[in-house]
């Protein structure tokens, strides 16, 4: 087994597959495929091995977190609106017990009141918000430092 800890799961939640159709002022104009392509490039540049997952079903997101044990070394996650209220995802993230960084394309602290609170941020090494797709690069750099990859 390789001792390099460089396997990262990049997880997206509800409505993020609709990027490109959602408010460009908040989320930019890139489609979800374009986002994944760009993030994959960050992974290559940083010598990280990325795996992508997206679902609009909360239970599937939870089950994916259950299955991560032993398959990846860290998580980058943008759960979309679940960020603000899903204690189920919070509990599953805690159970996954992996280093995680939370990313939001928009600046959740400068938007509606209900977006300002994240129920997962205290479980994450960092929360990166408002930097668009480049925020994922920062998240990967942060995880790489943590993993010593
Ligand atoms: C988001 C912010 C959330 O408030 C929103 O519900 C999303 C996307 C972001 O990336 O900025 O779906 O997580």
Give me the secondary-structure topology.
Blueprint: E1 7-12, H1 24-27, H2 32-45, E2 49-54, H3 58-67, E3 74-78, H4 87-96, E4 100-104, E5 126-129, H5 134-147
Parallel strand pairs: 1-2, 1-3, 3-4, 4-5
Helix pairs in contact: 3-4
The structure holds 1,3,4-trihydroxy-5-OXO-cyclohexanecarboxylic acid (DQA).
CATH class label: Alpha Beta
Strands, count: 5
Q: Which stretches of 5+ consecutive residues score pLDDT under 50? A: none
Rg, alpha carbons: 14 Å
Structural class, by secondary structure, is: alpha/beta
For the report, how would you describe the main beta sheet? 5 strands, parallel
Shape type: globular
Can you give keywords for this protein?
single chain, 149 residues, alpha/beta, Rossmann fold, five-stranded parallel sheet, 5 helices, 5 strands, 35% helix, binds 1,3,4-trihydroxy-5-OXO-cyclohexanecarboxylic acid
How would you describe this structure to a colleague?
The relative contact order is 0.21. The two termini are 15 Å apart. This protein has one domain (7-147): Dehydroquinase, class II (Rossmann fold, 3-Layer(aba) Sandwich). By secondary structure, it is an alpha/beta fold. α4 links the parallel β3 (74-78) and β4. The chain has a five-stranded parallel sheet, with helices on one face. It contains five helices and five strands; from the N terminus they run βααβαβαββα. The longest helix is centred in the first third of the chain and has 14 residues, at 32-45. It binds 1,3,4-trihydroxy-5-OXO-cyclohexanecarboxylic acid (DQA). The site of 1,3,4-trihydroxy-5-OXO-cyclohexanecarboxylic acid (DQA) has 11 residues, from loops.
């Amino acid at each position: 087994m390789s001792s390099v800890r460089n396997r990262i799961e990049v997880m997206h939640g509800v409505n993020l597959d609709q990027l490109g159709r959602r408010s460009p002022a908040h989320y930019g104009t890139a489609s979800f495929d374009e986002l994944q392509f760009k993030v994959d490039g960050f992974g290559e540049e940083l010598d990280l091995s990325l795996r992508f997952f997206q679902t609009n079903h909360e239970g599937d997101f939870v089950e994916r977190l259950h299955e991560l044990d032993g398959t990846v070394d860290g998580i980058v996650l943008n759960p979309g609106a679940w960020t603000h209220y899903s204690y189920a995802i919070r509990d599953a993230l805690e159970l996954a017990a992996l280093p995680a960084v939370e990313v939001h394309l928009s600046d959740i602290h400068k938007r509606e009141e209900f977006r300002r609170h994240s129920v997962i941020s205290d479980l994450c090494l960092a929360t990166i918000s408002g930097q668009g797709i480049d925020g994922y690069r920062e998240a990967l750099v942060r995880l790489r430092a943590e993993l010593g990859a």
